Amino acid sequence: MPVKRWLLIASMIAVIAGCNTDDSVLEPAGSPNNDIELMKISKDHQLDQHISNQAKDSMRKYAEVTAAKAVNTDKKMLMAVEVKHNERFNLANIKKQLKKEMEEQFPHITVEFSTDKKIILELDRLEKEIQKDIAYSPKKLEKELDKLISLSKEQT
To answer: CA–CA separation, 25 vs 81, rounded Å?
Structure first.
């Protein structure tokens, strides 16, 4: 009987210790998220990406966002963000809030917003190609962006 009692006490301690959260990991609401993965595209290229860079910078204030990717043309911007795993339960609300903010911040262009991993990977590839200046004309960029926007609207 004493062995069962000690085993019960030890398992209760393990459960309580496992459920404890470390508050030092949580960031205050007003502090910028410096852990976010951002790649700024140089402004020296013929394709002006300063709108995308501004959009990615504005994602720093959200602790839920772990990565932000964006590419723009003169009329459109496609932005994709990655959120923390435990925040995926609120994904619809987060997506709605972030899209609304981007539309308010950039009213002169059409903003498409995604949280799809495939779009994040494709935007990352496109950002790197633009950064390397791999012969992207404005027409080619617009065609590629249209393809990604239609891909983001597909439902599987």
So the answer is: 21
Is residue 102 within 8 A of residue 79, CB to CB? The reply is yes
Stated length of the chain: 156
Which residues in the chain come in under a pLDDT of 50? 22-29
**DSSP assigned state of 20:** -
Q: The CATH number of the domain where 114 resides is what?
A: 3.30.70.2210
What is the rounded CA–CA span in Å between residue 41 and residue 146?
19
pTM for the complete prediction? 0.69
Provide the domain limits for residue 128.
Answer: 50-153
Output the pLDDT for position 1: 65
Q: Enumerate residues 6+ apart whose C-beta is below 8 A from 84.
A: 63, 64, 66
